[in-house]
UniProtKB/TrEMBL annotation:
<keyword id="KW-0342">GTP-binding</keyword>
<keyword id="KW-0636">Prenylation</keyword>
<keyword id="KW-0449">Lipoprotein</keyword>
<dbReference type="InterPro" id="IPR001806">
    <property type="entry name" value="Small_GTPase"/>
</dbReference>
<protein>
    <recommendedName>
        <fullName>small monomeric GTPase</fullName>
        <ecNumber>3.6.5.2</ecNumber>
    </recommendedName>
</protein>
<dbReference type="GO" id="GO:0032482">
    <property type="term" value="P:Rab protein signal transduction"/>
</dbReference>
<keyword id="KW-0472">Membrane</keyword>
<keyword id="KW-0378">Hydrolase</keyword>
<dbReference type="InterPro" id="IPR027417">
    <property type="entry name" value="P-loop_NTPase"/>
</dbReference>
<keyword id="KW-0547">Nucleotide-binding</keyword>
<dbReference type="InterPro" id="IPR041822">
    <property type="entry name" value="Rab33A/B"/>
</dbReference>
<comment type="similarity">
    <text>Belongs to the small GTPase superfamily. Rab family.</text>
</comment>
<dbReference type="GO" id="GO:0005525">
    <property type="term" value="F:GTP binding"/>
</dbReference>
<dbReference type="Pfam" id="PF00071">
    <property type="entry name" value="Ras"/>
</dbReference>
<dbReference type="GO" id="GO:0003925">
    <property type="term" value="F:G protein activity"/>
</dbReference>
<dbReference type="GO" id="GO:0005794">
    <property type="term" value="C:Golgi apparatus"/>
</dbReference>
<dbReference type="InterPro" id="IPR005225">
    <property type="entry name" value="Small_GTP-bd"/>
</dbReference>
Length: 240
């Protein structure tokens, strides 16, 4: 079984002067994987910085971006790990990606059939690192602003997503009104996709403290109950 853990970060600035437990921020680690060039950097940048990046270069190893969001009054840090798609830039880092992962986002490029065909290999790589169906996973078809050049049919993608028990989201990290856009494409999905994952993670069963913190200011790790809910999303495919 995958090691599904949730980290809590304690605010050290508030710990010394008060006997009350310090405020804490749950951290959800979400890894974003898929072939090189499918738009992982652009998707994560869009969610964390709110815009499409001016220019990107191939990711080397891993980048991570964070954004704090509030759900039902609780502050949650969404940590997106943007992994390198190119094998030569992945080798040394792979072990680090897969530790303490709360959710996986698989990305393909709707204009690149090969990136869709690579998905089983990415799923297998996750499985080999103990990230199977018990970990929330979603499938994202990116670059739907280039729909006229699409090579991956939505129905085929949906079938694949169903087979692997994942919700499918087709979206664009780029503006829906970009030059190449002929059909309205809901880029707000980028926001909604990651928020959906965060809601899903937050709504999972309460956490049980498994490792006591010796000092406030440390990051402690909480482990989930063994019998937690598995894989039910209650949300379907979002298409533009
Ligand atoms: N039209 C369009 N182009 C996009 C979109 N998302 C990304 N791109 C472009 O696709 C190219 C690759 O994007 P990246 O985000 O760097 O791809 P990546 O998956 O992070 O690539 P690696 O770091 O090599 O794994 C860049 O030229 C982006 O501008 C999109 O939604 N629409």
């Amino acid at each position: 079984m995958a090691d599904i853990e949730s980290s809590f970060e304690f605010s050290s600035s508030l710990t010394s002067s008060s006997s009350l437990p310090p405020p804490r921020t749950r951290i959800f680690k979400i890894i974003v994987i898929g072939d090189s060039g499918v738009g992982k950097t652009c998707l994560t940048y869009r969610f964390c910085a709110g815009k499409f990046p001016d220019k990107t270069e191939a990711t080397i190893g891993v980048d991570f971006r964070e954004r704090v969001i509030e759900i039902d009054g609780e502050k949650i840090k969404v940590q997106l790990w943007d992994t390198a798609g190119q094998e030569r830039f992945r080798k040394s880092m792979v072990q680090h990606y897969y530790r303490n992962v709360h959710a996986v986002v698989f990305v393909y490029d709707v204009t690149n059939a090969a990136s869709f065909q690579s998905l089983p290999a990415w799923i297998e790589e996750c499985r080999l690192h103990a990230l199977g169906q018990e970990v929330p996973r979603i499938l994202v078809g990116n670059k739907c602003d280039l729909r006229h050049s699409a090579q991956v049919n939505t129905d085929v993608a949906q079938q694949f997503a169903d087979t692997h028990s994942m919700p499918l989201f087709e979206t664009s990290a780029k503006s829906p009104l970009g030059n190449d856009n002929r059909q309205q494409c809901n880029a707000d999905h980028v926001e909604a996709i990651f928020l959906t994952v965060a809601h899903k993670l937050k709504s999972q069963k309460p956490l049980v403290l498994s490792q006591p913190s010796s000092q406030f200011g440390d990051t402690v790790t909480l482990k989930r109950n063994e019998d937690e809910d598995r894989g039910s999303w209650g949300c379907g495919c979002w298409r533009s």
